[in-house]
Design brief:
Helix content is about 5%, strand content about 45%. By secondary structure, it is mainly beta. The protein has two helices and 24 strands. Catalyzes the isomerization of 5-dehydro-4-deoxy-D-glucuronate to 3-deoxy-D-glycero-2,5-hexodiulosonate. Keywords: Isomerase, Metal-binding, Zinc.
Length: about 280
């Protein structure tokens, strides 16, 4: 089994204003998340959130601990959110198996020792997207199907931002320590997400973009609302968003993205709106 990981460090907003394109991508963009036969993890100093991907093919893949955690096993002091963005697969949690179809989610609580990933069809493997955050309390493992999600319709076609928001792993559906995850699907003809843009000082966020056609791209906007920056992204790539940064994007076609958050509060509505005509 191939286990790969890297670390990312927190940056000051004043420093980020001086970054060129390559430095912005090095600090915030996460690429090569989904590789067949591999577990790929990126450990961020922003609320110590980990993003990653697991693509099992002809054999199962196990989520092992990594050195920065200084832990006997991965979830010794952490909780885990999983969303399947590929073919049908399953996740075994200390021997109990959970089947995950496309766009279904699984929350795994602190203290679970053996997390094993399988694909139902090697020719169409599951792509498991992971978010993990520190945890202090033990909560049950819960599968969240599409029917279990809280669904909110947002935006308007005339503003090119009509979208369906699916709250998957949030305090309104299950109990978590700090991790929250959801999925937003852009309707055909709409390209803008998270408009008006916002920041939230008590939690960071990571976006994972998928269902992006191979000949299309996402332009992700970040930075101080008065001095924004952008990062061009492709399918199945993620980006870290610090607490001081907006997180919004426009695509050259419609797409879907998974948002994941870690921080000190679980109030989804806790945000500071940045009016669109005030962005710079």
């Amino acid at each position: 089994m191939s286990l790969k990981y890297e670390e990312r460090y927190a940056t000051h907003p004043s420093d980020a204003k001086n970054y060129d394109t390559n430095r912005l991508r090095d600090e915030y963009l996460v690429q090569n998340i989904m590789e067949e036969g591999s577990v790929n993890l990126t450990y961020s100093q922003y609320d110590r959130l980990i993003v990653g991907g697991v693509v099992p093919t002809n054999k199962a893949l196990t989520l092992k601990t990594i050195d920065p955690l200084k832990a006997e096993y991965f979830l010794e002091r952490r909780e885990l959110g999983i969303v399947n963005v590929g073919g049908k697969g399953s996740v075994s949690v200390d021997g109990e198996v959970y089947e995950l179809e496309y766009k279904e989610a699984l929350y795994v609580g602190k203290g679970k020792k053996e997390i094993v990933f399988n694909s139902s069809d090697d020719a169409a493997p599951a792509h498991f997207y992971l978010n993990s955050a520190p945890a202090h309390e033990v909560f049950p493992t819960v599968k969240i199907s599409r029917e279990d999600a809280i669904i909110i319709e947002l935006g308007e076609a005339k503003n090119s931002n009509r979208r369906t928001l699916n709250k998957l792993i949030v305090s309104d559906t299950i109990k978590t320590n700090q991790l929250q995850m959801g999925m937003t699907e852009l309707h055909s003809g709409s390209v803008w997400n998270t408009m008006p843009a916002h920041t939230h000082s008590r939690r960071m966020e990571a976006y994972f973009y998928f269902e992006v056609p191979s000949d299309q791209a996402i332009c992700h906007f970040m930075g101080d609302p008065k001095e924004t920056r952008h990062i061009w992204m492709a399918n199945e790539e993620a980006v870290f968003s610090p607490t001081w940064s907006i997180h919004s994007a426009a695509g050259t076609s419609n797409y879907t993205f998974i948002w994941g958050m870690g921080g000190e509060n679980l109030d989804y509505g806790d945000m500071d709106i940045c009016q669109t005509n005030d962005l710079r």
